[in-house]
Amino acid sequence: MLTIAMPKGRIFEEALELLRKAGYALPPEFAESRKLMIDVPEEGMRFILAKPMDVVTYVEHGVADLGIAGKDVLLEEERDVYELLDLHISKCHLAVAGLPNSRLNDIAPRVATKYPNIASSYFREQGEQVEIIPLNGSIELAPLIGLADRIVDIVSTGRTLKENGLVEFEKISDVTSRLIVNPVSYRMKDDKIDEMVERLSAVITNEEDES
Ligand SMILES: Nc1ncnc2c1ncn2[C@@H]1O[C@H](COP(=O)(O)OP(=O)(O)OP(=O)(O)O)[C@@H](O)[C@H]1O
Ligand SMILES: O=P(O)(O)OC[C@H]1O[C@H](OP(=O)(O)OP(=O)(O)O)[C@H](O)[C@@H]1O
């Protein structure tokens, strides 16, 4: 049995479609179910549905053999997992943003973010000593109410920035979802895992050729 940690929310639907296109027969009720653990015996698979930021934890601890996680999550924390495949889904990017014509406060510049490690290493590379203010969501609020001069957050269409009167100053990194694997699982079950990588790669290549 292969156990796969799936991220609930926006990535889930795209990941489900990719698996189905790769020929995995996943039950139709999959998307509507509130169950957090779903077995698909005919495919020899068990799916667990987790918070996106937690997928890598289940895989690192080996209770899930595989997982689908955003590259932002993998960049934020060094975790003992292997990254097997760029799934080219949930495309977005990490960026520095803030109020237009604003600058970093000279004395104690503050950066609000859900990605403290990515933000602090980015500004360190820019030679800027900043105070990181960790938040869990609605990061764009921080510059509006004077909590921070800058944010480091995910940007996709740019709509959230625009509607909140913010602008993007720098792009840090492109982000897509990745297939990750527990290192021990990869050694123990590699034929089934290799087969999944091959089947998913074929779908991704085909879709890239068609686009
Ligand atoms: N606007 C977006 N467009 C595309 N992909 C996104 C966007 N925002 C986040 N992502 C990707 O989706 C993953 C999950 O992000 P999301 O914000 O849905 O989850 P979360 O914040 O961890 O959970 P929740 O929002 O339910 O608290 C992120 O790790 C990132 O890779
Ligand atoms: O450029 P856009 O298309 O506007 O997308 C960017 C927004 O998407 C995410 O928000 P989301 O609501 O997913 O989650 P959050 O709770 O982390 O803000 C991210 O945090 C940005 O706020």
TrEMBL record:
Subcellular location: Cytoplasm
Pfam families registered for this protein in UniProt: HisG (PF01634)
Gene Ontology molecular function, alphabetical: ATP binding; ATP phosphoribosyltransferase activity
Metabolic or biological pathway, per its Swiss-Prot or TrEMBL entry: Amino-acid biosynthesis; L-histidine biosynthesis; L-histidine from 5-phospho-alpha-D-ribose 1-diphosphate: step 1/9
Catalyses which reaction(s): 1-(5-phospho-beta-D-ribosyl)-ATP + diphosphate = 5-phospho-alpha-D-ribose 1-diphosphate + ATP
Keywords, alphabetical: Amino-acid biosynthesis, ATP-binding, Cytoplasm, Glycosyltransferase, Histidine biosynthesis, Nucleotide-binding, Transferase
A GO CC term attached to the entry: cytoplasm
Coiled-coil blocks: none
Domain ATP phosphoribosyltransferase catalytic: 51-201
Enzyme nomenclature, EC number: 2.4.2.17
Catalytic class of the enzyme: transferase
SUPFAM superfamilies: Periplasmic binding protein-like II
A biological process term (GO) from this entry: L-histidine biosynthetic process
CDD domains assigned to the protein according to its UniProt record, in alphabetical order: PBP2_HisGs (cd13595)
InterPro entries (UniProt xref): ATP_PRibTrfase_cat, ATP_PRibTrfase_CS, ATP_PRibTrfase_HisG, ATP_PRibTrfase_HisG_short
General function of this protein: Catalyzes the condensation of ATP and 5-phosphoribose 1-diphosphate to form N'-(5'-phosphoribosyl)-ATP (PR-ATP). Has a crucial role in the pathway because the rate of histidine biosynthesis seems to be controlled primarily by regulation of HisG enzymatic activity.
Notes on the domains: Lacks the C-terminal regulatory region which is replaced by HisZ.
Subunit note: Heteromultimer composed of HisG and HisZ subunits.
Protein family membership: Belongs to the ATP phosphoribosyltransferase family. Short subfamily.
Protein name: ATP phosphoribosyltransferase
Organism, scientific name: Anoxybacteroides tepidamans
Biological classification of the source: Bacteria, Bacillati, Bacillota, Bacilli, Bacillales
